[in-house]
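Weekly modeling sync, notes
Attendees: AB, CL, MP (scribe)

Item 1: holo prediction request
CL wants a bound-state model with alpha-D-galactopyranose before deciding which constructs to order. AB pointed out that an apo prediction alone won't tell us much about the pocket. Agreed to run with the ligand included and paste results into these notes for async review.

Input as submitted:
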Amino acid sequence: MKPISTTIALAGILVLAGVRVSRGSQAAAPAASPAGVTRAAFGKLADGTAVESFTLRNAHGIEVRAITYGAIIVSLRVPDRAGKFGDIVLGNDDLAGYVDKPAYFGAVVGRYGNRIAKGRFTLDGKTYTLATNNGPNHLHGGVRGFDKVVWKADPPAAGATSVTFRYTSADGEEGYPGKLSARVTYTLTDKNELTFEYSATTDKATPINLTQHSYFNLGTPGSDILGHELTLEADRYTPVDATLIPTGQLAPVSGTPFDFRKPTAIGARIAQDDEQLKRGGGYDHNFVLTAAGDGLRRAGRLADPGTGRTMEILTTEPGIQFYSGNFLDGTIKGKGGVVYKYRSGLCLETQHFPDSPNQPSFPSTILRPGKEYHSKTTLVFGVSR
Ligand code: GLA
């Protein structure tokens, strides 16, 4: 038997090297990487702040790795129909990549995901000014949004394949009112579900719209996503003006290239002569989810006929932004040196509608003191034969 002091020293080394909290059901999984959570260092920012990673692994070998910088999901490994695992999200090999080439890869965007017209809104009679970091508009929380800050991680809880990140945004940060305490929990289950659960409280009324900005490619990294088949449970969408701000209309998708109610290849209509597609440079629009009511509702499904990989999306949110990677232009060299060319990834951002703080007819995004913000989205991974 080892003396107690040696045991403590060894435990200390293990803590430094990375803590693994494994679950009871690990017996069937390979010994080298059982189901559970692995914590490790991911690098340091220029100011010396340490960034950590948390790898969640389920009993079937699906693995998601997230870091404290931006609460970014840096990899998500799922099998194809032959059982071969591959990484289905775009990103960088190291922290410097995420800092130097910001494209919102895998991040939680906030305080307000998506656009606010002219970086201005009026709340309870007071007008607030935000950064205009996207042409004339405010995008994804501003110059230093939630995707560019270091979140605090809760210690991994025994028995749960999950990680919780917290971030407190100061009153006035990026121009937003109120000290906002935000939290996101990523949970991976043995049913091959990955859930994003957000909550927040504030001490002054503020807009909030948190979402996950992963870029997916269920096929070969670097190839385009035009052959992916998309289904969106949306009868309507929010058409945009030339600067991608919703006009306020909820337009029917019927008879337009925005009708994804039946599985349709993304590339099938993307080049059509359509004013909305031209404004978005492809798809970059919010879809109004049809199913009403509380709780998780089916939002859509993405499938790659090549690999057989499928991904169902369920959410409590009223909308989903489908962005077809139109700004990817081959200038970013990502993971493993793969060049992210035009439309080699797509985002499906569950959310409230863009510019809601200026659009009284849209569902409200205002969080008030004493209330709690809640939002939940689940991705379910599978394969088609
Ligand atoms: C969102 C926006 C797009 C683009 C990407 C990030 O999806 O709607 O226009 O800004 O983020 O590049």
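Recorded for review: The CA atoms of residues 228 and 304 lie 5 Å apart.
Action items: CL to compare against the apo run; MP to circulate these notes.
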